[in-house]
Amino acid sequence: MEENSEKPGFGNIIALGLVSFFTDFSTEMILGLLPVFIVEELGGSRVIVGLIEGIAEFLNYLFRVFSGVISDILGIRKKIVLLGYAVSNFSKPLFAFTNTWTQALVVRSMDRVGKGIRTPARDALLSESAKKEMLGRAFGIHRTLDQMGAIVGPALASLLLPLIYFRGVFLASLIPGLAALLILLFFVKEVRRPTAEKQNVLSNVKEVLYGGYRIFLVIVALFTVGSYGFSFILLRARMSGVEVAAIPLLYASLNIAHTIAGVPSGILADKIGGIKTLVLAYMLFSASSLLAGLCGLTVYVSILVAVIYGVYLGMLETVQRALVSNLSQPRIRATAYGVYYLVVGCFTLVANVLFGFLWDSYGMTAAFIYSTIISLVSATLLLAAANTIMREG
């Protein structure tokens, strides 16, 4: 793949990591409480939780396509990233004023639209800030800093919850969000790229969808339709007897595992290859799903499931993003990220609603076994297609 020799280096990666740290600090103060808030205070069901997450994530990924194409056409990254972070960090405190699950859906969707705007340009900026042979490490470092915020946020939420309850915690999330915007504004450097040669959105997307990258996306789509969001891990823990006030701490343990996995999985991907490392991530998801579905409902099993799920997430989000960079041309890289995220988003919507439906209609075990089977099939196909993906990518 063609590469630009001028790299701003790891200073940009650290700065972007700190932006993500404070944004996740803000976000995770809310997300560890949100499923319980929706079910127990706003009167939503588990299907509603899945619907909210599914719709919000679908909008998130839909906006990533347009954002990625625009970033490539204009040849800019930072301004688009700043806009996306601003939308997210100013919308989240509005959860404090919601009284129905439909209002929560609107706020959650605004937050995810902001994420959709920023993510392709940010990931392209990350990939353009490091040499190709260091991409796994670069994304691992960013993932680790990002997830450190996801540890601090739930921990602080757990301390604040008895004092200011749900709505007070939601309002307090604005403070770290503002810190993220200041770091982005003053410390992240722009990396200008040549504009995409084809100034047509459909042409850019069509060019992205070729060879090994297309095969990679098909397998990612299959895996995603069998996956489920962290909200169901927290609801499963609640069923096992974990107290409401302890849910953010359980979520923090999931995020600690997520954080620890980031850099090692990036290093592993650089050494043995991204495909093999991604297969391992899929297998860890299978293990967490199997445990959640078949083991007895105890607090200790819930903790174990959360930790394994956290390691899987850390590996998945590090390695899949690095693979997108390896399988795409630099001048249309943000478009490649946008298409990747759209595929994930579409199937995330289906996956969350379907998982919630299976749980409510056929029981928890049926839902988790379904996810186990789909992930095992996806891992097998990915390993079988590894050579073709990398050769044609």
The CATH architecture name reads: Up-down Bundle
**Mean pLDDT, nearest integer?**
84
Continuous helix count:
16
Instruction: Estimate the global geometry from the Cα principal axes.
Output: globular
Unreliable stretches: 1-5
Span between termini: 9 Å
- Mind describing the biggest β-sheet? none
CATH superfamily caption: MFS general substrate transporter like domains
Strand content: under 5%
Q: Please provide the ordered H/E string of secondary-structure elements.
A: HHHHHHHHHHHHHHHH
Helix-strand category:
mainly alpha
Compose a concise summary of this entry.
The protein is built from 16 helices and no strands.
Provide the descriptors you would attach to this structure in a database record.
393 residues; mainly alpha; Growth Hormone, Chain: A; 16 helices; 0% strand; globular
How would you describe this structure to a colleague?
This protein has about 400 residues and is mostly helical. The protein has a single domain, classed as MFS general substrate transporter like domains (Growth Hormone, Chain: A), CATH 1.20.1250. Helix content is about 80%, strand content about 0%. The termini are close together. The N terminus is likely disordered.
